[in-house]
Amino acid sequence: MTDTVPDRAEITALLSDQWDAITRLVDGLDENRWRTASPLPGWTVFDVVAHVIGTESLLLGEPTPDIDVAGVHIRNDIGALNEKWIDSLRPLAGSQLLERFLEVTGRRLKALEQTTPEAWAELVPTPVGMAPYGRFMRIRLFDCWMHEHDIADALGVSVDEGGSRGTAAFAELLPALGKAVVKGAGAPDGSRITIELTGPVPGQINVAVDGGRAAVVETLDAPATVVVTLDSSLYARLRGGRTSADDHADRITVTGDTDLGNRLVRSLAFTI
Question: Which residue from 198, 196, 199, 143 is spatially nearest to 168, judged by alpha carbons?
Fold first, then answer.
């Protein structure tokens, strides 16, 4: 699913829908609600939207604000880069930030609509290394989709997590799963793992471990060593490091090798 270049028209339309979904969440918020703490350390609802603006502004070629930032939640250069954009936008009122969001995403949509097939397939630097620009835009969809849920969770509201946007975003939850299985959970060679997802993005993920490496496979060649069942909403938040498995044990079922399964659900978090 991640080896082919996603369709430009499809991803552009999904990004447009995704930005509309974020707009609906924050449109009309009073200033106190804008400043509600989000699941991301140090960030409010305002900061999450400002982060999206910053990344899309960078993709438009705008220079990063020259601001000295520091904070306990800044762990690397990317974190510092994100914070510079957020810090530069914090003086705005929430309504002004939304205007900026609409203006920047509007320009990005026009740019995406004008992207040539050659540019869409060109290898570019991305958070997962060199990849086609079209894959990078699916990563952008995933990032914005996750941030929609950050905002919704902060505000205590429900949103539609399924559909085409959810399915496309979930494709970016697969590539790094092997690291969680082998390095995080310590799954030994011969392990066969099935993750059953219920809820808005239902599906089955099968993982085979051989030679010290884990691979996502269509079907298992042997009975599953362990089966982990949970809803896709929780799975996405665990993968995104927004919560912990121990806080939601009642929503997770593990059968088979329970020790391996419990180690796995505690090791799902990754950063893209």
Answer: 143
Q: CB of 64 within 8 A of CB of 84?
A: yes
Average pLDDT, the chain: 95
Q: pLDDT digits over 195-248, tens only?
A: 999 999 999 999 999 999 999 999 999 999 999 999 999 999 999 999 999 999
pLDDT score at 78: 75
DSSP per-residue letters across the chain:
--SSPPPHHHHHHHHHHHHHHHHHHHTT--HHHHTPBPSSTT-BHHHHHHHHHHHHHHHTTPPPP------TT--SHHHHHHHHHHHHHTTS-HHHHHHHHHHHHHHHHHHHHT--HHHHHSEEEETTEEEEHHHHHHHHHHHHHHHHHHHHHHHT------HHHHHHHHGGGSTTHHHIIIIIT-PPTT-EEEEEEETTS-EEEEEEEETTEEEEESS-SS--SEEEEEEHHHHHHHHTTSS-GGGGGGG-EEEESHHHHHHHHTS-----
